[in-house]
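Protein modeling request. Please complete all fields; requests missing the sequence field cannot be processed.
Requester role: graduate student
Desired output: 3D structure, token encoding
Chains: 1
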Amino acid sequence: MPVEVVYKTDVLRSLRKELLVLQGFKKPVCERHISVGLGFMEKSFPHDVFPTGAVHDFVSDNFSNAAATNGFISGVMGNLFKNAQKINAVWVNASNKIFPTALKLFGIDPHHIIFVNARNPKDVLWVIEEALKCSCLTAIVGELQDIDFTASRRLQLAVEKSGVTAFIHRQNPKSKNPVACVASWKINSVKSIPQNMPGLGFARWNVELTKVRNGTPGNWLVEWQAGHFKEIKNQLKAISSHRELKVS
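Delivered output (248 residues):
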């Protein structure tokens, strides 16, 4: 890339950060910058930093994508645990479908998670809201079907005080209404490519950042490899390489 283009890009990025501050979007403090292993996505976020201490909204429309979404959230949370001073979280839902031992694949010790199976959607929301007020926690994962804007606004106000990162996962929502959040995501399961063992491949997802406050939406093909997120930049090349290995 020509030096002149690089210079202009840096200038534009600097101006963008200054505008964000003027708009009231606080610049993150270096000491609180926590890596979540999504370096290839970070330019989409304000100040090129994944927002922690904020609400992230996820929407899935079927069981396969719900599982993919929980996998992606687990990967992010596992990286939060690696770099955070506090290693505690709460996982809330109205069912008992989470297999705690599987979280070890994402670098999470299940003993650091409090799993709460609430009886109904109202209780799920109540537990999420109360847990988000606890500054001793690193993150909250809340699985529910629907949440209205007013309720989501309460969650946003709670994290602004506590600094806890909230992952709100709406599964098969009756209404895909907007909610108060810093970013909205849609994670779709993608067929993996077998590696050394026949039929087995790394977990692969299409990650879509559909909305981000003061940032730029984007779309990435991502694999979870050896405890890390890896962007797959050329799907056709990856498939071709797999076929060549299979033939040889």
